[in-house]
């Protein structure tokens, strides 16, 4: 109630006043002076070299240029030191020193995030987890995987697959993202519906606090059921490295499914999409693993580089496309369920065309279509990307509202999302223009977020807050919740050295 | 590492010294004097009546006698005031007053816990959630249930069943336990393997803090995916009312399975049980919902009042019994899977006898056998009940060790547990003796907990800490973790009015 009242009372005009243009677009606070951090010195480098080997204290300009930039090229820091510890003890010594010396630190994993959470704002020291990459073990009885935070997601997936298990998260950047980054952003991905949130599967963590304490939060010994003490480890999940540095995880991994199926479907109306979703839940039941939605424009853009199996005979493109995947334990049974589901959905007229993957490579090709939406849209111009949750019936109304706000501007809007989770990826680009256009950004923000909240959604479904959405937290949560969050931050990071000016609103 | 070192270095002798007889058995701290709380006065009653109606400020002796006693009759408080607010605003006014006036408060739900978490130690005011019992709604698209904390679990189950969903927790006391109590103890139950922990399914909470602030933690608007801010709501799950009073919850409820099957099986050796468990996971896959274990003695006791379908032809009782349940979406498929699993398990000789339920009433009768273990054991004498997690291969070694420690004493040991979750319920009674026998309790504690920790288990799998296990937290978590927990407690309950001297170790 408090939240919706707040949003209503702020309204469009006041929202704009509170988060004016300067505040929205200027992402550079006067860092060093306002927060009291100092620039790292040669003496600091000498200290870091005494803990790590010389090669793990990186000052090479080319490397640092890469580590200071996110892959969307939207964020750029000026850090001059990259540290690559390989033990939690080394992380502890580094953080303890930085807290004492008032040196700001940005924990960094695979740099695949979209909100600038792991990119320095200014001269923060980059603390990379990439060398913390040991896989300890996978317990054959419980399926609990224990590993260090810097393991690449794809490496963990391969390790688990060899042992008949899978990691309960999967996403496009699996080849470079690290599990510690996935945890610190509470990454979602396509199989959230089937396996639950990453946080739901974490049983234990090892975390290093800024004062050098190493918290073993049910990490050394992990049990499926453990009710001894507060669930402190949950605080570090999705906290974007603002409370401590996650160095290890114990995570529940389900059995590898014996059969996978995928179908690529077309629906005329959005209402049909909602009906198909309900039919899929009831007919596919426990084997429904993913249900992805793409709109006409997204498929049209992808079709330039991909063969889309469901182009209408006259070359026209349908209004809605769905990619459905199942994970089950019995190929024959799963196929029967899929066939019954498709029969029902087509009999009712909700699905107008569809194709079933015949093998794993066809399943891959369906996912290639879905995952090509992002680069296909990015190729057209400067991208304004929004990751939001919405009540399902609101998807179209929200999109219509935002499209009408963009009328008269040279923009392109293409959308897709993990619709079974209520997660929409809303994308606007300016065709041919590859730099920010304030006339577009002004029409989008903050109105877009206000609309999401008014409709009962979340302004960040799975990409986090970082340095792009933290200012908006004030209209997401009421003052009491923000106070509680600030208390948590202070309890763990009293000097505020970890990822300053991110995640929480700037003071 | 820290934990295991600590345990090893304490050893049996030192453990005993640290948690000596007086400390283990005397569960009554000198409450009022040490913590600075005062006894409630007539003026306090006048204030409470000004907030609630007279009938909701209960001083009736008979009612209070019941509310001061837990159902195991192990714990007894002396509270003289029971409050029954029906809104979170009333809870806020009560707590704010109690914090200012230094009045200690025990939040109380259905009083079905086993560790005395909701029973006063002395004169604490009992804050009952029983009148906070509104069910708001179940979202047809997402399956998110929103309700107040005082709803009876069975009522929620019926409400959800009417809407083709189920509550992701089920346990024997469903007829009287409240969802707020389930949340505050992070209750486990029999379907944990299939639906995950209760905490994993909670998307939002409404919580009242001792200073009267009402935190709406994604409660008014809940989305499956929401990455805006720290996961503060997770702190209140399993916290036994020591940080705030949970007044409402938004919880993910899965679709109701269309088919349920159950089998009751017998195994000779414990190693066979482990093999059956692995076969069940791989053959039943996604439909495996519950796998319960009972030992010979437990079944023998139950057989006095129940027809056990698998008594051997000569009347002998097998060494191990398993109850397996599946939840699926297609009866034919599920039956085929079950048959294949049983065929494999019997072919390999891991299952020596078995029976399949033919209908729902037979499924119920299997569960009656399992759920009768508790009362059957309790009827024999004074009960020493332990709820622990253990690595699966350790179950028998742990039981053997504890049995050998009890040799020479007149005791009976019967065991059962949610074995698929690694959750053992270890039970000792003294036949014919219905009061505590220190020669028995001395043999059990603290050695039992030390043995569990040494084997990598948890001393509380699903029953919480309350006033029975909180002292042992010092050997479960290292000093740094305890400091972190104390900081969390202080951040939310600085005066310490909520459930004092419970959950965390007494200072």
Fold blueprint:
The structure is a homodimer of 507-residue chains.
Chain A: H1 2-18, H2 21-25, H3 31-35, H4 42-51, E1 57-58, H5 61-67, E2 82-83, H6 88-101, E3 105-108, E4 125-128, E5 135-138, E6 144-148, H7 153-162, H8 179-184, H9 192-195, H10 198-201, E7 202-208, E8 214-217, H11 233-236, E9 245-252, E10 259-267, H12 270-284, E11 288-295, H13 296-302, E12 320-328, H14 331-347, E13 353-356, H15 360-378, E14 381-389, H16 394-405, E15 412-418, E16 423-431, H17 438-444, H18 447-454, H19 473-476, H20 479-492
Parallel strand pairs in A: 2-4, 3-4
Antiparallel strand pairs in A: 1-2, 5-6, 6-9, 7-8, 7-9, 10-12, 10-13, 11-12, 11-15, 14-16, 15-16
Cofactor (chains A, B): FAD
GO cellular component, one term (chains A, B): mitochondrion
InterPro entries (chains A, B): FAD-bd_oxidored_4_C, FAD-bd_PCMH, FAD-bd_PCMH-like_sf, FAD-bd_PCMH_sub1, FAD-bd_PCMH_sub2, FAD-linked_Oxase-like_C, FAD-oxidored/transferase_4, Oxid_FAD_bind_N
Q: Brief overview, please?
A:
The structure is a homodimer of 507-residue chains. The first copy, chain A, has helices at residues 2-18, 21-25, 31-35, 42-51, 61-67, 88-101, 153-162, 179-184, 192-195, 198-201, 233-236, 270-284, 296-302, 331-347, 360-378, 394-405, 438-444, 447-454, 473-476, 479-492; strands at residues 57-58, 82-83, 105-108, 125-128, 135-138, 144-148, 202-208, 214-217, 245-252, 259-267, 288-295, 320-328, 353-356, 381-389, 412-418, 423-431.
């Amino acid at each position: 109630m408090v939240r919706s009242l707040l949003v209503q009372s702020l309204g469009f005009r006041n929202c704009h006043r509170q988060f004016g243009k300067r505040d929205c677009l200027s992402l550079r606070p006067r860092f060093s002076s306002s927060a009291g951090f100092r620039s790292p010195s040669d003496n600091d480098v000498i200290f870091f070299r005494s803990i790590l080997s010389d090669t793990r204290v990186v000052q090479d300009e080319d490397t640092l240029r890469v580590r200071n930039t996110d892959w969307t090229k939207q964020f750029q820091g000026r850090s001059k030191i990259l540290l690559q510890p390989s033990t939690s003890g080394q992380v502890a010594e580094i953080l303890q020193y930085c807290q004492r010396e008032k040196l700001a630190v940005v924990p960094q994993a695979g740099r695949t995030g979209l909100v600038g959470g792991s990119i320095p704002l200014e001269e923060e020291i980059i603390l990379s987890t990439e060398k913390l990459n040991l896989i300890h073990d996978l317990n054959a009885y419980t399926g609990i995987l224990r590993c260090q935070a810097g393991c690449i997601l794809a490496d963990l997936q391969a390790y688990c697959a060899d042992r008949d298990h899978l990691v309960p998260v999967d996403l496009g950047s699996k080849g470079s993202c690290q599990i510690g980054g996935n945890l610190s952003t509470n990454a979602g991905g396509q199989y959230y519906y089937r396996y639950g949130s990453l946080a739901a599967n974490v049983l234990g963590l090892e975390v290093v606090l800024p004062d050098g304490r190493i918290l073993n939060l049910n990490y050394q010994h992990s049990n499926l059921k453990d009710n001894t003490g507060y669930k402190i480890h949950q605080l570090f999940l999705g906290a974007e490295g603002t409370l401590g540095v996650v160095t290890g995880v114990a995570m529940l991994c389900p059995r590898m499914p014996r059969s996978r199926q995928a179908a690529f479907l077309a629906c005329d109306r959005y209402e049909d999409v909602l009906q198909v979703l309900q039919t899929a839940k009831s007919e596919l039941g426990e084997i429904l693993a993913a249900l992805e939605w793409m709109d006409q424009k997204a498929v049209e853009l992808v079709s330039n580089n991909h063969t889309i199996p469901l182009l209408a005979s006259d070359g026209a493109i349908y209004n809605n496309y769905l990619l459905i995947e199942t994970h089950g334990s019995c190929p024959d049974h799963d196929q029967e369920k899929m066939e019954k589901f498709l029969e029902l959905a087509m009999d009712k007229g909700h699905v107008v065309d569809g194709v079933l993957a015949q093998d794993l490579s066809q399943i891959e090709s369906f996912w290639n279509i879905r995952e090509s939406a992002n680069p296909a849209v990015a190729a057209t111009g400067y991208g304004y990307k929004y990751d939001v949750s919405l009540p399902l019936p609101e998807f179209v109304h929200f999109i219509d509202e935002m499209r009408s706000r963009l009328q008269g501007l040279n923009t392109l809007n293409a959308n897709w999302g993990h619709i079974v989770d209520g997660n929409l990826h809303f994308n606007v680009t300016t065709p041919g223009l590859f730099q920010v256009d304030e006339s577009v950004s002004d029409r989008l923000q903050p109105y877009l977020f206000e609309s999401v909240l008014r409709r009962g959604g979340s302004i960040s479904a799975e990409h986090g807050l970082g340095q792009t959405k933290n200012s908006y937290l004030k209209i997401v949560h009421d003052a009491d919740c923000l106070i509680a969050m600030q208390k948590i931050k202070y309890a763990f990071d009293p000097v505020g050295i970890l990822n300053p000016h991110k995640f929480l609103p700037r003071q």
